[in-house]
Amino acid sequence: MRIGILGSGGLGTALAARWTAAGHDVLTSGRDPGRTGRGFADAAAHGTDAVLVAVPDHAALGVLAAIGAGGGTLAGRTVVDCTVPLVPGTLTLSTAGGPSMAERIAAAAPGAHVVKAFTFAPADVWAAEEPPVFDGAPLGVPLCGDDPGALATAGRLVTDLGATPVAGGGLDRAGLAEAASAYLIGLWAGGADARTVLPRVGRDTARPTLGRR
Ligand SMILES: NC(=O)c1ccc[n+]([C@@H]2O[C@H](COP(=O)([O-])OP(=O)(O)OC[C@H]3O[C@@H](n4cnc5c(N)ncnc54)[C@H](OP(=O)(O)O)[C@@H]3O)[C@@H](O)[C@H]2O)c1
Fold this sequence. Notes:
Blueprint lengths: L1 E5 L3 H12 L3 E5 L3 H4 L3 H7 L3 E4 L3 H10 L11 E4 L19 H8 L4 E4 L6 H5 L5 E2 L2 E2 L1 E6 L2 H12 L4 E4 L6 H16 L24
Helix pairs in contact: 4-5
Bound molecules: NADP nicotinamide-adenine-dinucleotide phosphate.
NADP nicotinamide-adenine-dinucleotide phosphate binds next to helix 1 and helix 4.
């Protein structure tokens, strides 16, 4: 697949290396084309199969505007959004009370098929040489999105990392993924092992049933 990555921080760089090793044609970009060799527009044009938004949330909409996403440059494309919208220096959501970042990105890129993914694991997990297996099970990566083709593309990208795609609901649930990720970051920052707070549903506990209104 041809993958364009908007951002060359820890996450974008780690995923780029793993996808390149898996045989994909990946172009990473940053603010300074002199450093990465390419600018955001180059990566967006390159990513005909998928574009990964891997810049801070406060920068994402500006980057999309700069590459002409508002005019439809990403229409029909799979756009994978991995932003965790935290107020800088805090553990609270910068989007609180409003749409999720994934929904804002979808609004800023008309026609793009946005999938929320990769918010739950730190970049170190993908930078490691080995596929991410914990307690004997491959790492699950929840995907939130509405377009079946885009979800399939994102699922293949997850599989090619040695992880397992997990159906995470529609884009209207992306805000919950963002909030849960922010909460887990807070647990990790406090020194807790976030995996210890999650029992295995179906084995340790009964599966929850959804109430009717
Ligand atoms: N790191 C993780 O463990 C992790 C895990 C899950 C999700 N995420 C999410 O993934 C995204 C990327 O995180 P990251 O840690 O890889 O890197 P980051 O430090 O959040 O972002 C680095 C990239 O964003 C660009 N950038 C920074 N400020 C910008 C601005 N104002 N305008 C335009 N571009 C700007 C940088 O450009 P230059 O190249 O010019 O510096 C760089 O390419 C974030 O939204 C984060 O919440 C990160």
